Amino acid sequence: MESSWKGIKEAITSTCYEVLDRKKHHHKEWITVDTLDKIRERSNKKAAINTSRMRAEKAKAQAEYTEVNKQVKRSIRNDKCKYVEDLAMTAEKAARE
Question: Which domain of life does the UniProt lineage start with (predicted)?
Fold first, then answer.
């Protein structure tokens, strides 16, 4: 009796973890590793803004964040453009054959 309850409890807890566990962040397939590193750097800069206490410190951190954010957006735009171009090239090759 006890072993069957143990099995039921394990099944329920594993199901609950699958359903209720924190969602993992999945990135798009076309985002490169370099861009992911920049995104991680951007989140670190954002945390620095939130933890800074003095106004001058906060302004400096905000300026750094703004610059990194521009780089991330530019990098994502370039990655997506390359991805779409590659898709177009493969579709064109498939159409020729």
Answer: Eukaryota
User: Is the pLDDT reported for residue 34 higher than 90?
Assistant: yes
- Asked whether the beta carbons of 75 and 28 are under 8 A apart, the reply is no
Amino acid at the residue 90: T
Q: Is the pLDDT of residue 23 over 80?
A: no
The token pair that represents 82 in the structure block:
């390359």
- Other Cβ atoms less than 10 A from the Cβ of 50: the count is 9
The residue type of 22 is R
Is residue 11 helix, strand or coil? helix
pLDDT of residue 22: 66
Q: Average pLDDT, stretch 47-75?
A: 95
Q: Which residues contact 48 (CB under 8 A, 6 or more apart)?
A: 61, 64, 65
